[in-house]
Amino acid sequence: MIKASQFTFILLILTVLSSCNTHKRMVYFQTEHTADSVDTEASSNAHFTPTLKTDDFLSVVITADDVESVIPFNYPVVGVTQSVNQGYSQGNPAKVGYLVDADGMVNLPVLGRMKLGGLSRAEATLLLENELKNYLSNPVVNIQIQNFKITVLGDVKKPGTFNIPNERITLLEAIGLSGDLDITGNRNNVLVIREDEEGTKQYRIDLTTDEVLGSPVYYLEQNDVVYVEPNRAKRSQGTFWRSSGGIFISLTSLIITTITLIVK
User: For residue 22, which of 35, 47, 167, 182 sits 20 to 30 Å off, Cα-Cα?
Assistant: First the structure.
């Protein structure tokens, strides 16, 4: 027979081992590196800038020394959408811009169709400014992606699609926007799905290490999808209840019927 003191000691050991295992599954960035290696990983993403892709909706604003001369090169101002809220009217300019088509082309006033898909914003800006020098004095181009968004799905507290106005968000920030992973979320195998000119790519990230810092998906691009799968315990629990639900219902009915017959 195991004595009470021995049983308590064994229980304590099992609790400690379980706590260590839980710590390894739950805590982010457990890998230890030297300062130099961390700096190298961080610097690889320091100058990230998104590239323009098919179906991006671009705002392109052109200015120059002569204000009147740039009017034909800018998208014409359209109407104002009006709404009334407690007696106050609110006007918001309708969203205007240029769609990047399937060939990466954008149709601009005066300049016509130009290939911007696949370029970074800085590259596209330089291309347009050089072209505009044939028409304007000291042209300045401002390009923004108006539909930059990312989606976070799976075992997180607030899954959804999020619009990113500054066109720059990290994987960690995206997880923060979604309220962080649930306790049952698998931190060892987070999936990032990305579409580019070559097709759909998948990246697997282990958040319990610091590999994310040097990953190509540390900075997310427009339309990236982040998926957090549930851990094995949660998947097993769901499968168990789905497969055993009918058995439990039948057993409960049998017990109630038996009790009813006995009482009668």
Answer: 35
